[in-house]
Amino acid sequence: MTTISQTAGRSLRPSSSGGFLGALAHGVTALFDRLERRSAVKTLSELDDRALRDIGINRSQIEDAVYGQFKAELSRYL
Q1: Where on the phi/psi map is residue 9: left (φ > 0), alpha (ψ -120 to 50), or beta?
Q2: Contact at 8 Å (CB) between 35 and 42?
């Protein structure tokens, strides 16, 4: 009788897309993304209403624009 192992053909190394290191890399990337977006919100919030109007948004749309939740009328300008 011959026994075939379930692990035949699989690498014993952990995959680079999963596991602890993958989760850590994803967390670090998410952190830097969050910090960058917070900085963009702060920068846009410091602009006056005329400058915001020039780029096609008003003060109430800053976070939507930064976080990618565009309204239909904004998406044609971006």
Answers
A1: left
A2: no
